[in-house]
Amino acid sequence: MNSASRRLWRTSPLTYVALVLATLFSIYPFYYMVVIATRSLDSINDVPPPVTPSGSFGDNFGRVLDNEAASFLTGLLNSVIVSGIVTVSVVITGSLAGFAFAKLRFRGRNALLLTIIVTMMIPTQLGLIPLWGMIQDLNWFDTLYAVTVPFLVSAFGVFMMRQYATQAISDELIEAGRVDGANTFRIYWSIVLPALRPAAAVLGLLTFMETWNSFLWPYAVLTSENPTLQVSLAFLSYAYYTDYSQVFAATAVGTLPLVIVFIVFGRQIVGGIMEGAVKS
Asked: In this predicted structure, what is the pLDDT of residue 67?
Protein backbone atom coordinates (compact mmCIF):
# COMPACT_ATOMS: atom_id res chain seq x y z
CA MET A 1 0.00 0.00 0.00
CA ASN A 2 1.27 3.51 -0.78
CA SER A 3 1.43 6.29 1.80
CA ALA A 4 -1.91 7.82 0.72
CA SER A 5 -3.70 4.50 1.17
CA ARG A 6 -2.10 3.97 4.57
CA ARG A 7 -3.25 7.40 5.71
CA LEU A 8 -6.76 6.64 4.47
CA TRP A 9 -7.08 3.47 6.57
CA ARG A 10 -5.10 4.71 9.58
CA THR A 11 -7.14 4.98 12.79
CA SER A 12 -6.69 8.20 14.74
CA PRO A 13 -6.85 8.46 18.55
CA LEU A 14 -10.07 10.45 18.18
CA THR A 15 -11.71 7.40 16.58
CA TYR A 16 -10.86 5.27 19.61
CA VAL A 17 -12.24 7.94 21.94
CA ALA A 18 -15.49 8.08 19.98
CA LEU A 19 -15.80 4.27 19.97
CA VAL A 20 -15.18 4.06 23.71
CA LEU A 21 -17.76 6.76 24.44
CA ALA A 22 -20.32 5.10 22.17
CA THR A 23 -19.72 1.77 23.90
CA LEU A 24 -20.11 3.29 27.36
CA PHE A 25 -23.33 5.08 26.41
CA SER A 26 -24.70 1.82 24.96
CA ILE A 27 -23.77 -0.33 27.96
CA TYR A 28 -24.74 2.09 30.73
CA PRO A 29 -28.56 1.52 30.53
CA PHE A 30 -28.02 -2.22 30.94
CA TYR A 31 -25.56 -1.67 33.77
CA TYR A 32 -27.96 0.64 35.60
CA MET A 33 -30.73 -1.92 35.13
CA VAL A 34 -28.54 -4.45 36.94
CA VAL A 35 -27.81 -1.89 39.68
CA ILE A 36 -31.50 -1.26 40.36
CA ALA A 37 -32.34 -4.98 40.09
CA THR A 38 -29.85 -5.76 42.85
CA ARG A 39 -30.86 -2.92 45.18
CA SER A 40 -33.57 -2.74 47.82
CA LEU A 41 -36.55 -0.49 47.22
CA ASP A 42 -35.42 1.98 49.89
CA SER A 43 -31.93 2.43 48.46
CA ILE A 44 -33.27 3.24 44.99
CA ASN A 45 -34.58 6.59 46.25
CA ASP A 46 -31.29 7.60 47.83
CA VAL A 47 -29.68 10.90 46.85
CA PRO A 48 -27.33 10.59 45.03
CA PRO A 49 -28.74 7.44 43.38
CA PRO A 50 -26.75 4.20 43.70
CA VAL A 51 -24.27 3.37 40.96
CA THR A 52 -22.95 0.01 42.16
CA PRO A 53 -24.75 -3.37 42.39
CA SER A 54 -25.79 -4.80 45.73
CA GLY A 55 -27.00 -8.17 46.96
CA SER A 56 -30.80 -7.87 46.94
CA PHE A 57 -31.46 -9.47 43.57
CA GLY A 58 -32.67 -12.76 45.08
CA ASP A 59 -35.23 -10.98 47.27
CA ASN A 60 -36.41 -8.77 44.40
CA PHE A 61 -36.83 -11.64 41.95
CA GLY A 62 -38.51 -13.75 44.64
CA ARG A 63 -41.18 -11.07 44.93
CA VAL A 64 -41.54 -11.18 41.13
CA LEU A 65 -42.29 -14.89 41.28
CA ASP A 66 -44.74 -14.36 44.16
CA ASN A 67 -46.62 -11.68 42.22
CA GLU A 68 -49.63 -13.61 40.88
CA ALA A 69 -50.89 -10.58 38.94
CA ALA A 70 -47.87 -10.71 36.60
CA SER A 71 -47.52 -14.49 35.95
CA PHE A 72 -43.85 -13.95 35.13
CA LEU A 73 -42.84 -17.57 34.52
CA THR A 74 -45.88 -18.11 32.30
CA GLY A 75 -44.98 -15.00 30.34
CA LEU A 76 -41.37 -16.12 29.97
CA LEU A 77 -42.39 -19.57 28.70
CA ASN A 78 -44.99 -18.09 26.33
CA SER A 79 -42.40 -15.72 24.86
CA VAL A 80 -40.02 -18.62 24.24
CA ILE A 81 -42.76 -20.59 22.48
CA VAL A 82 -44.11 -17.70 20.40
CA SER A 83 -40.69 -16.33 19.43
CA GLY A 84 -39.40 -19.77 18.47
CA ILE A 85 -42.40 -20.67 16.31
CA VAL A 86 -42.54 -17.28 14.59
CA THR A 87 -38.80 -17.29 13.90
CA VAL A 88 -38.77 -20.76 12.33
CA SER A 89 -41.85 -19.97 10.24
CA VAL A 90 -40.53 -16.61 9.00
CA VAL A 91 -37.20 -18.12 7.96
CA ILE A 92 -38.85 -21.02 6.11
CA THR A 93 -41.56 -18.99 4.37
CA GLY A 94 -39.17 -16.12 3.65
CA SER A 95 -36.56 -18.37 2.05
CA LEU A 96 -39.17 -20.26 0.02
CA ALA A 97 -40.86 -17.10 -1.26
CA GLY A 98 -37.53 -15.31 -1.74
CA PHE A 99 -36.26 -18.19 -3.88
CA ALA A 100 -39.46 -18.19 -5.91
CA PHE A 101 -39.39 -14.44 -6.56
CA ALA A 102 -35.67 -14.44 -7.35
CA LYS A 103 -35.26 -17.52 -9.57
CA LEU A 104 -38.61 -18.90 -10.70
CA ARG A 105 -40.61 -17.51 -13.58
CA PHE A 106 -44.38 -17.32 -13.13
CA ARG A 107 -47.21 -15.03 -14.15
CA GLY A 108 -47.81 -12.07 -11.83
CA ARG A 109 -44.43 -12.34 -10.13
CA ASN A 110 -43.63 -8.63 -10.27
CA ALA A 111 -47.14 -7.63 -9.20
CA LEU A 112 -47.03 -9.93 -6.20
CA LEU A 113 -43.60 -8.66 -5.21
CA LEU A 114 -44.82 -5.06 -5.50
CA THR A 115 -47.78 -5.92 -3.29
CA ILE A 116 -45.46 -7.33 -0.64
CA ILE A 117 -43.30 -4.21 -0.76
CA VAL A 118 -46.37 -1.97 -0.42
CA THR A 119 -47.49 -3.84 2.71
CA MET A 120 -44.16 -2.93 4.30
CA MET A 121 -45.06 0.75 3.92
CA ILE A 122 -48.30 0.46 5.90
CA PRO A 123 -47.91 1.17 9.65
CA THR A 124 -48.66 -1.88 11.78
CA GLN A 125 -50.97 0.16 14.02
CA LEU A 126 -53.46 0.63 11.16
CA GLY A 127 -54.19 -3.10 11.10
CA LEU A 128 -54.70 -3.59 14.83
CA ILE A 129 -58.45 -2.97 14.92
CA PRO A 130 -59.48 -5.25 12.00
CA LEU A 131 -57.02 -7.89 13.19
CA TRP A 132 -58.45 -7.69 16.69
CA GLY A 133 -61.92 -8.24 15.22
CA MET A 134 -60.72 -11.33 13.37
CA ILE A 135 -59.20 -12.70 16.57
CA GLN A 136 -62.53 -12.24 18.33
CA ASP A 137 -64.40 -14.00 15.52
CA LEU A 138 -61.99 -16.94 15.71
CA ASN A 139 -62.29 -17.11 19.52
CA TRP A 140 -58.53 -16.72 19.84
CA PHE A 141 -58.60 -13.95 22.43
CA ASP A 142 -56.15 -14.64 25.28
CA THR A 143 -54.54 -17.55 23.41
CA LEU A 144 -51.10 -17.89 21.89
CA TYR A 145 -52.69 -18.34 18.46
CA ALA A 146 -53.50 -14.62 18.51
CA VAL A 147 -49.85 -13.58 18.87
CA THR A 148 -48.38 -16.33 16.68
CA VAL A 149 -50.50 -16.96 13.57
CA PRO A 150 -50.66 -13.33 12.25
CA PHE A 151 -46.85 -13.13 12.21
CA LEU A 152 -45.89 -16.48 10.69
CA VAL A 153 -45.05 -14.73 7.41
CA SER A 154 -43.02 -11.53 7.18
CA ALA A 155 -43.01 -9.21 4.18
CA PHE A 156 -39.59 -7.96 5.21
CA GLY A 157 -38.35 -11.55 5.40
CA VAL A 158 -39.57 -12.33 1.90
CA PHE A 159 -38.03 -9.17 0.46
CA MET A 160 -34.73 -9.67 2.28
CA MET A 161 -34.36 -13.29 1.18
CA ARG A 162 -35.33 -12.41 -2.38
CA GLN A 163 -32.64 -9.74 -2.58
CA TYR A 164 -30.01 -12.08 -1.15
CA ALA A 165 -31.03 -15.01 -3.37
CA THR A 166 -30.83 -12.84 -6.47
CA GLN A 167 -27.09 -12.28 -5.94
CA ALA A 168 -26.05 -15.37 -3.98
CA ILE A 169 -27.48 -18.01 -6.32
CA SER A 170 -26.59 -18.11 -10.00
CA ASP A 171 -29.00 -19.24 -12.67
CA GLU A 172 -26.42 -21.74 -13.84
CA LEU A 173 -26.54 -23.46 -10.46
CA ILE A 174 -30.31 -23.84 -10.69
CA GLU A 175 -30.05 -25.15 -14.26
CA ALA A 176 -27.43 -27.68 -13.17
CA GLY A 177 -29.86 -28.98 -10.58
CA ARG A 178 -32.55 -29.31 -13.23
CA VAL A 179 -30.19 -31.23 -15.48
CA ASP A 180 -29.44 -33.64 -12.63
CA GLY A 181 -33.18 -34.36 -12.37
CA ALA A 182 -33.91 -32.47 -9.15
CA ASN A 183 -37.41 -31.05 -8.73
CA THR A 184 -38.05 -27.52 -7.44
CA PHE A 185 -38.24 -28.47 -3.78
CA ARG A 186 -35.06 -30.57 -3.99
CA ILE A 187 -33.27 -27.61 -5.58
CA TYR A 188 -34.51 -25.40 -2.74
CA TRP A 189 -33.45 -27.85 -0.04
CA SER A 190 -30.07 -28.94 -1.44
CA ILE A 191 -28.88 -25.83 -3.31
CA VAL A 192 -30.81 -22.72 -2.32
CA LEU A 193 -31.15 -23.15 1.44
CA PRO A 194 -27.42 -23.76 2.08
CA ALA A 195 -26.58 -20.69 -0.01
CA LEU A 196 -29.10 -18.59 1.94
CA ARG A 197 -27.81 -19.70 5.35
CA PRO A 198 -26.05 -16.39 6.24
CA ALA A 199 -29.11 -14.34 5.39
CA ALA A 200 -31.38 -16.86 7.10
CA ALA A 201 -29.31 -16.56 10.29
CA VAL A 202 -29.63 -12.77 10.26
CA LEU A 203 -33.35 -12.90 9.51
CA GLY A 204 -33.96 -15.49 12.22
CA LEU A 205 -32.15 -13.54 14.90
CA LEU A 206 -33.78 -10.24 13.98
CA THR A 207 -37.20 -11.92 13.96
CA PHE A 208 -36.58 -13.58 17.33
CA MET A 209 -35.57 -10.29 18.93
CA GLU A 210 -38.49 -8.41 17.39
CA THR A 211 -41.02 -11.01 18.52
CA TRP A 212 -39.48 -11.28 21.98
CA ASN A 213 -39.73 -7.50 22.46
CA SER A 214 -43.22 -7.14 20.95
CA PHE A 215 -45.62 -5.43 23.34
CA LEU A 216 -48.51 -3.55 21.70
CA TRP A 217 -50.32 -6.46 20.02
CA PRO A 218 -49.82 -9.01 22.85
CA TYR A 219 -51.04 -6.37 25.29
CA ALA A 220 -54.23 -5.96 23.24
CA VAL A 221 -55.15 -9.67 23.03
CA LEU A 222 -53.65 -11.29 26.14
CA THR A 223 -54.54 -11.03 29.82
CA SER A 224 -52.49 -11.28 32.99
CA GLU A 225 -53.36 -14.99 33.26
CA ASN A 226 -51.72 -15.90 29.94
CA PRO A 227 -49.24 -13.14 29.03
CA THR A 228 -46.03 -12.94 27.10
CA LEU A 229 -42.97 -11.57 28.83
CA GLN A 230 -43.49 -7.93 27.85
CA VAL A 231 -47.13 -8.02 28.98
CA SER A 232 -46.05 -9.60 32.25
CA LEU A 233 -43.57 -6.76 32.80
CA ALA A 234 -46.34 -4.25 32.16
CA PHE A 235 -48.56 -5.82 34.80
CA LEU A 236 -45.71 -5.56 37.31
CA SER A 237 -46.00 -1.78 36.98
CA TYR A 238 -49.76 -1.63 37.53
CA ALA A 239 -49.93 -0.53 41.14
CA TYR A 240 -50.50 2.59 43.21
CA TYR A 241 -46.74 2.65 43.86
CA THR A 242 -44.43 0.93 41.40
CA ASP A 243 -41.80 -1.32 42.93
CA TYR A 244 -38.94 -0.55 40.56
CA SER A 245 -36.58 -3.03 42.17
CA GLN A 246 -39.07 -5.76 41.31
CA VAL A 247 -39.66 -4.45 37.79
CA PHE A 248 -35.94 -4.16 37.00
CA ALA A 249 -35.20 -7.60 38.43
CA ALA A 250 -37.80 -9.10 36.10
CA THR A 251 -36.50 -7.00 33.20
CA ALA A 252 -32.95 -8.22 33.79
CA VAL A 253 -34.06 -11.85 33.70
CA GLY A 254 -36.21 -11.17 30.62
CA THR A 255 -33.29 -9.52 28.83
CA LEU A 256 -30.86 -12.35 29.59
CA PRO A 257 -32.11 -14.70 26.78
CA LEU A 258 -31.57 -11.94 24.20
CA VAL A 259 -28.06 -11.28 25.50
CA ILE A 260 -27.23 -14.99 25.34
CA VAL A 261 -28.61 -15.29 21.80
CA PHE A 262 -26.65 -12.27 20.65
CA ILE A 263 -23.42 -13.49 22.26
CA VAL A 264 -23.78 -16.96 20.76
CA PHE A 265 -24.94 -15.89 17.30
CA GLY A 266 -23.58 -12.34 17.07
CA ARG A 267 -20.73 -13.45 14.81
CA GLN A 268 -23.27 -14.88 12.37
CA ILE A 269 -25.24 -11.64 12.38
CA VAL A 270 -22.19 -9.53 11.56
CA GLY A 271 -20.85 -12.11 9.11
CA GLY A 272 -24.18 -12.37 7.29
CA ILE A 273 -24.57 -8.61 7.04
CA MET A 274 -21.00 -8.12 5.84
CA GLU A 275 -21.31 -10.94 3.31
CA GLY A 276 -24.48 -9.36 1.95
CA ALA A 277 -22.72 -6.00 1.74
CA VAL A 278 -19.80 -7.51 -0.18
CA LYS A 279 -22.17 -9.26 -2.60
CA SER A 280 -24.03 -5.99 -3.13
From this structure: 85
